[in-house]
Amino acid sequence: MPQSLTDASVAELMPELRTVMREAASIARPYFRQGKQTTARVWSKAGGSPVTEADVAVDTFLKIRLSELVPQAAWLSEETADDPARLGRDLVWIVDPIDGTRAFLSGHPDWSIAVALLQAGEPVIGFVHAPALDVAYEAVRGQGAFKDETKIVVAGRDSLQASRITGPKPMLDRLTRGAGPNPDFVRIDRIPSLALRLVRVADGSVDVGMISSDARDWDLAAADLVLREAGGAVCTLTGEATVYNRPDPVHGELVALPRALRDPVIAAWGA
Prior knowledge:
The N and C termini lie far apart (51 Å). This protein has 2 domains: 7-152, Fructose-1,6-Bisphosphatase, Chain A, domain 1, CATH 3.30.540; 164-270, 3-Layer(aba) Sandwich (D-Maltodextrin-Binding Protein, domain 2), CATH 3.40.190.80. It is α+β, with helices and mostly antiparallel strands. It contains 8 helices and 14 strands. The strands form 3 sheets. The protein has a 7-stranded mixed beta sheet with strand order 3-4-5-6-7-8-9, with helices on both faces. Strands 11-10-12-14-13 form a 5-stranded mixed beta sheet. A two-stranded antiparallel ribbon has the order 1-2. A hairpin with a 5-residue loop joins strand 1 (42-44) and strand 2.
């Protein structure tokens, strides 16, 4: 099998990937209890962040199935030890088996399974599945973005006035101060899964999603492609695009938005 994929061969992966993602959701879903603590065993990783047996089970399943789907692709996942060999590979799977683990373990439905395939450092497939909500977002580069197979686009807003914004309160406060007198923002409760925060900008239900520093490739890459294909972008607060598959896959502060709001947000942030 060639080391790179054509646009056509990338698109041909989607039917099988949909099946894989449904199966992954069926592994995670029995551990989740709406409004209640998870039934899964929970422990702490180095640094103190929680991990559950559901994270590990989904990660193990996806590594097997996705490696069968594209055998030549390297692997980067939140729950797998990093292999630096990925840096020399053209194709890389980027996986978060459960994005929003704290939401998952506390019974909040805003958690997701996020999978991206990178080629030459750029996402060419993005898939974000929210099992507790029974919603799936997907994109293939150059072919648009879809929510449950219905095409989606970002909100058609070109002014920050009355924008619907979400994210960490300190970032929202700074954006509000810089947006001028009475921007009349609608603040949406923070969305625990970063992937869901981005795809809700893609489907037009959120205008601006702020992301604090320390997000990883696996939090972002899948939803980034969905957002790009819907007419939006994820960028730094000085306007640079996100870069994936670096030696250290950690990002600084970011914002997800429709492309038409990029300049107004950067101006407000720097005011």
